[in-house]
């Protein structure tokens, strides 16, 4: 048995420039993001051949099927079809998460990374972070053909507060931001996360945004430039952190212009209420359309902002540094019925 824990992420700047449709033009693409102490968990183990099914997949539903092609979860089906040896059968995969999916925290890609990590780990293969990120991008963009960017897979695999740059050839580089601990704590203390109650399909929002790329070149270039500015604010101890919040507001205004589906009237009203209560800026996380609203709020204004957004669920969080990690690995727990070295066929 193997259990993998993979973090969710909060993206500050650059969203939209991490999509191949943008950075392969070529145009410069980069994001500034951090992973947080909210995780997805994937448990994987071999099953003995004593059931009337070969695969048990537990996620939002319970699947018990004989054939991989009958698995409904697209990522699980894809990974088992692509990476499974023809003589292998019999797996149980259980998914759990600290927060709901489809809420702008990169949970879909975190699951892909976690399952790949568990799969290769179960086969005794150590996975470097670049490998996990590249394989997850390959699964989602090439094998599944999803209209998604490339930042979430990298963030989930690497962990931490990073600047991620995207090359026109599909390569990427990850530069951790070495922010002094006191300044990092001050940033963290100023960030508040609220659940709007809306979930959305990131793919559909991304498709609509990509359709307008030709008309939004200047806005996307501006979003890219904000990555560098956000980095400079964090790394310069002489600049007030409140400038980071102001830049978030500027970025949110620019992102809303990419497509009307990025926001809606309820979210706009909540954002305006938070600003009126003292928040410097913020954004709806992920592709947009629903999910979690993150706000930068000075400490002295946080009670007022929580009151202004009392109809939304407040979710405290902390930044994390680990990325995807194995929390349990015990080959002897392959099943309760078989020796660890036994093969199920």
Automatic annotation (TrEMBL):
Keywords, in A-Z order: ATP-binding, Kinase, Nucleotide-binding, Transferase
Keyword Repressor recorded: no
Residue span(s) of domain GHMP kinase N-terminal: 76-160
Domain named GHMP kinase C-terminal: residues: 241-311
InterPro entries given in the database record: GHMP_Kinase-Related (IPR052203), GHMP_kinase_C_dom (IPR013750), GHMP_kinase_C_sf (IPR036554), GHMP_kinase_N_dom (IPR006204), HddA/FKP (IPR001174), Heptose_7-P_kinase (IPR014606), Ribosomal_Su5_D2-typ_SF (IPR020568)
UniProt-listed GO biological process terms: GDP-L-fucose salvage
Family: Belongs to the GHMP kinase family.
SUPFAM superfamilies (alphabetical): GHMP Kinase, C-terminal domain, Ribosomal protein S5 domain 2-like
Molecular function, one GO term: fucokinase activity
Pfam families membership: GHMP_kinases_C (PF08544), GHMP_kinases_N (PF00288)
PANTHER family: L-FUCOSE KINASE
Superkingdom as given in the UniProt entry: Bacteria
UniProt protein name: Kinase
UniProt source species: Roseicella aquatilis
